[in-house]
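Note to self: keep these together.
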Amino acid sequence: MHHNSSGRTTSSEVQGSSSTTLSRGRKLALKAAAASLSVMVLAACSSGSSGGTSASPSDSASGGATGTLKIGAVFPQTGSLALLGPAAIAGAKQAVDDANAASPSFKTDLIVKDSGDTTTDIASSSTKALLSSGVSAILAPESSAVVKTVFSQITNAQVPFITPAATDPSLTNPNKSNGYFFRTVPSDILQGQALAQKIVSDGKKNVSILYMNEAYGTGLNTQIVNTLKANNVKVAADVPFTPNSTNFNAEVSKVLAPKPDALVVISFDEIKSIAAALQQNKFDFKNFYGTDGNNGILGKGDPDITGAQFSTPGVNPDASFKAKLDKINGKTLNSYSYAAEAYDAATVVALAAAQGKSTAPQGIQKNLITVTKGGTKCTSFKACYDLIQKGTDIDYDGVSGPIDWNESGDVTKASISFYKTTGPDNKTVWVSQQTSSL
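Structure:
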């Protein structure tokens, strides 16, 4: 979901495999000069931030790139995923700060716009503004459904875009993205299987599912149902709901009727109304399983869901990284979901620009995959940037994991974390994680 995902189209030129990979020889040929990306550092990061007036990205065959490395971001600040936006924004801001600190000659500008949700056209307007301002890459929305509304808009412009949270498996479509779509989060194929396996390992035998009837919900529901059935667990009720609904009395009655020993809820902030309805029915939240879309949504004053468990793609960021995010956010974040993935998305864009000595979107797109695999491992922008200056082929392993993108722009190794709610303030604490290969 937010990964999620609450979810495309051809561009005029089809990029072949050569557009997504660089030979080692070409990489070594780049060692003559480090990227010199001069720009103003803009603190940008409100939905009202403008595209700026700096020069459009330019490509230089010999002396490196000049102009602004401008990264656009379309993250939720309003709508059903608004509570997830701050973590992604903080992660992207931190990545840009780290890139700017790595070298006096390397500067990056981050411009953040609101994505809203599918009930508005905010994402399309924000994307249009970013493209008009000459961004070199876009950090795409956290919702799969919202990503789908801007997919063709971005691919037709031939600008690479990376989502830190949209997990709908159907987004993996190289023929439609022409190699311009990437994600730092694994698809729901992995999360759905992992959550279902957790339910099986907890000994549940009679499971009900309540899921939102859109890309994120249906994709996860399919994987969960198939995995449960494969493990001889009965799916007693499988009930969809319309996104942004507020009254769930009928749906809750349906999922509780079979007296399930576990209930899976796939939602965004609809969890508030769903939890209230479950509480009225005296539901035991120790038998509740949620997903990344509703992990961390409930807080103090909301229905007490102590004991509820949630799956979320990605790792649990360490304390020092969380402290940086809190500082850049101005206060403690309610959720850190997808902050690491947003951080890595912005970082690889900057590394791809440095390696290709170009701020041109096509130049960045050609270098994105190669900076994440097959070279000397490095785990920070500075370490990777220093290697690039020496002409070294790099393999960036990020805060969210090794990334290792395949030709479809999907991570090939990823972790799923599990959280449990403790106490009446609904604080969710990390419990465990499992790492799998896609």
